[in-house]
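Appendix C reproduces, verbatim, an entry submitted by the partner laboratory led by Prof. M.T., so that reviewers can inspect both the input and the predicted structure.
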Amino acid sequence: MMKISIQSRPPTDSYLRWASQMGVDCLDAVSLPGVNQVGAAGGQGCADLEKLLKLRRWIRSFGLDMNRASLPNVSKFMLGQPGGDEQVENACKTLKVLGEAQIPIARPTFATSSGVWPETHGVPREWPTTIPMRSVHRGGYLMRGFDLAAMRTHMAETGVDRTEVLPEAWWSRVEEYYGRLISLAEECGVKIAMHPSDPPMPDAPFSGLGYHHVLDLRPSPNNGLLYCVGTRCEAGGTRMVLDEINHFGRKGKIFLVHFRNVRGSLASTGAFEEVLLDDGDMNMFEILLALQKIGYDGCLNPDHTPILKGGTPERRMALSYSVGYLKALLAALAALP
């Protein structure tokens, strides 16, 4: 049976109690003790097992569990910079810790070779603040937007060249890193789930063919996808999402689903806007039916939420709406004959 997970801010008793009351099953992207503390007192750059076990016990005391964590970034390794080998070692050490703590899914994080675009969910580092990246929807709620033409214009004006953003050496490093990662994941019993590049630019590393290629780098039951419904719809619309769910799902390669809706796609309109679950191009119940058809029984994470008037920085109001909507969809799915 499919479950619900949410992105975790640094957890507090209040946040965990609220998540439990909303009917959430798991937390994703929990900040791992030790990983983000390099250079700080006691920081080691990789997860601390004792502290992670303590964190998991605390989360489970609220009837929740930890479903997925992100591995330390290996951006220096991907760019061939000093300190890159240390980053890989920290990622591998963290993976071992996740296995010992019985955290089932790990997400690897990379960086593009050009440094112009972050790997996921971001705005170009050089993007001028005068170009709006927020879209306004019913009642004034705000979410992320993206316009390909505006981005191209900006790049032309600033002389940014993306004709060679992923040289052969970059993919060679991906293959080297994945070779180590997947072998270790098999030993540790952890699944490696790659998120697609977002925005899904045609030349982004894990968009289009690159997203398929990452599975071919090291065929393994532990090598799969964090399938982001919203990102893939941004790339090619509803039909492509349904086709990919069928394609990857039949092979058992969907380990976790980011469940969000969008309006528009780069293929159809050259732009997209993120929206609430009921307010976009996709019929999200149709997406659930497709996931059920291929036997998916993992977590659904409504990962991106809007800024609502009266909401808090944790966006509990928006998340409550998304979780409630998703629970209603799951109840309707369960009621089908």
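The CA atoms of residues 22 and 323 lie 7 Å apart. Additional entries are available on request from the coordinating office.
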